[in-house]
Specification:
The chain starts with 6 loop residues before the first helix and ends with a strand. The longest helix is centred in the first third of the chain and has 22 residues, at 7-28. It has a five-stranded mixed β-sheet. Strands 5, 6, 9, 10 and 11 form a five-stranded antiparallel β-sheet that branches. Helices cover 13% and strands 27% of the residues. The radius of gyration is 26 Å and the shape is globular. By secondary structure, it is an alpha+beta fold. The chain has helices spanning 7-28, 44-47, 142-145, 175-179, 192-199, 224-227, 397-404; strands at residues 91-93, 112-114, 127-132, 138-141, 151-158, 182-191, 207-212, 219-223, 232-237, 240-241, 251-253, 266-272, 287-288, 294-295, 304-309, 324-332, 338-344, 352-353, 355-357, 366-373, 380-388, 417-420, 426-429.
């Protein structure tokens, strides 16, 4: 007797196997609403051999520096003429935070801001001067700088104008443009205090000037207290050298403080008794209050959060009634560590506690989520509210506007709201009393 089965019989057995597997899966997952009702046992993607599984793949030599899948072509930084100063050299490229995973932003998607275009620095000709009120002024090559003991830390960098363009009312129906002026990475470099232990800082030194080597000669003033705390000179990002748009070969990192202070293409640190009052801390990066007085030297980015899914980019239009779906977001604080996030479904009238996910680190992104049973036809107003271990909590828009008005664009951290319509579309809205 011939025990071999024909190809037709093998195909029937294969279909029967997958039907039984699908049936068992439905039984195992009953009551969870996580299994899509259109997952069919006869799905061609299951029943047929895939095209990519029937031919050779690329050799390991195809891309000596890896590239993303071609199917991820929509996951990019984006820009707009509305946020450019006449050209895209003094401009921004914003992070697709709705597509981010975990708390690390890939280097190719990291938020970028420049004031005169991206400089391309020859590392062999790079020099860092440290002078002023130090006992032993010095000029370091890149190799000499890297001989100091290094540290690796995970921190976000956020433009202080993140969300600032939204405060007269939502302008961009996009979470990427509303809150994408930030990103988070693992940084490798040296604490400035470690170098100063070697050089000797004079007691009268109270301020440090950080100056870049690009054509804008970006300069910012930093209090010595921050310098002696956690300020870093970094050359590594997510396990590789900084990219040119992130300041290659060296940039300043002031964890938790506004991104403009984290001077790129760093060439000089000078210590003195008084601040320099540079252009970027007088005509820019100050906030005019309704009284006519401006706030200056307010550095740390306040506690903040946002919903990233659902979003205008990731709507719920394909969800069925009763589906269990994860609402996910980010929280961060330049003051310390996130301790909790609350989520409201009615625009801030009532809140429930969300769950913090994964690593919770100081001055770093923190993931949070809430499992929700979707009811088709309901209108939701999703508002998140974060708090940190310094005792700060996000204010309402009314509370913030009562102090800052609507003209100031920096350090806006009030709660924001995303409307989920009855059909599952998502819109950026503003809730005011």
């Amino acid at each position: 007797m011939d025990n071999k089965k024909s190809k037709e019989e093998q195909s029937i057995d294969r279909r029967d196997f997958f039907r039984k597997t699908a049936a068992m899966s439905v039984t195992a997952l009953a009551g969870t609403s996580l299994l899509s009702s259109n997952a069919m046992a006869d799905d061609p993607a299951i029943m047929n051999h895939t095209a990519w599984g029937q031919k050779w793949g690329d050799p390991v030599t195809a891309n000596l520096y890896g590239v993303p899948s071609a199917y991820e072509h929509n996951v990019t930084r984006r820009n707009t003429k509305l946020l450019a100063s006449g050209n895209f050299r003094a401009s921004i490229a914003v992070t697709p935070i709705h597509e981010s995973q975990g708390i690390i932003t890939p280097n190719g998607l990291f938020f970028s801001r420049s004031h005169g275009g991206t400089a391309h620095v020859d590392p062999n000709e790079y020099r860092l001067m440290i002078h002023g009120l130090v006992e032993k002024p010095i000029v370091l090559t890149l190799a000499q700088l890297k001989r100091y003991p290094s540290v690796t830390r995970t921190h976000f960098i956020e433009c202080p104008a993140n969300g600032g363009q939204e405060w007269r009312g939502p302008q961009f129906n996009s979470v990427q443009f509303a809150k994408g002026f930030m990103a988070s990475a693992e940084w490798t470099g040296v604490y400035i205090k470690t170098i100063l232990e070697d050089l000797g800082l004079k007691p009268e030194a109270q301020w440090m000037l950080a100056e870049g080597s690009d054509n804008s000669k970006m300069g910012r003033t930093v209090p010595v207290d921050k310098v002696l705390d956690d300020a870093m000179i970094v050359w590594g990002q997510n396990g590789e050298a900084l990219r040119p748009e992130q300041g290659y070969p060296v940039r300043l990192l002031l964890p938790g403080w506004e991104g403009n202070l984290c001077v790129k293409w760093l060439r000089r640190l000078e210590f003195a008794t008084e601040p320099w009052y540079c252009k970027e801390e007088t005509s820019k990066y100050t906030d005019l209050k309704p009284t006519g007085k401006a706030i200056q030297h307010f550095y740390a980015n306040e506690v903040n959060s946002t919903v990233v899914s659902p979003s205008p980019e990731i709507p719920w239009t394909d969800l069925e009634d009763g589906a269990v779906v994860e609402i996910e977001g980010l929280a961060w604080s330049g003051m310390g560590t996130i301790t909790g996030v609350d989520l409201s479904f009615d625009g801030g009238k009532n809140y429930v506690e969300a769950k913090l996910k994964g690593l919770v680190l100081p001055k770093s992104w923190t993931r949070w989520s809430f499992m929700h049973t979707y009811k088709k036809g309901d209108r939701l107003l999703l508002t998140s509210r974060a708090m940190d271990d310094a005792g700060y909590i996000q204010p309402t828009i009314d509370e913030e506007v009562s102090i800052m008005g609507v003209e100031a664009v920096y350090h806006r951290n009030a709660v924001e709201t995303w409307e989920v319509t009855k059909t599952g579309e998502v819109n950026h809205v503003q809730i005011r009393s």
